[in-house]
Request: fold
Amino acid sequence: MLELVDGLYVSTVYEGEDLGTITTSEPVALGGQRLDFVPFYVGNARDVVPAVETPPLIGIANAIINAYQLSADWRWQLFMSGQETLVAINGEAPKTVGAGVVHQMMGTVMTANTAISRWRPFRSCSGILT
Reply:
């Protein structure tokens, strides 16, 4: 702990599981005089002041995050486009389509042309992600 005791700087270290071991030091400056301030500095991205500033490379960091997100979205789309899709033939049109959609066919009358099957992509996407 860094503190001023009677106007002079004292450094105290508490150790052990119960913090019962106490080590106290009284640092001195050049010339042997005790310090009347706590030697503590706060550094930010550009100066030695406690004011919070925008990091100087925030633009590059944001660009890298955007590139990662774009790459992840692209790879997810490649994965989804290579998955089988359930298709309902002569059934009620679904509200959405794609590999993650659940189709449900309900009714009592089924015609000869009514079917539900899986559609597989013509070509494999296994070689795209390298």
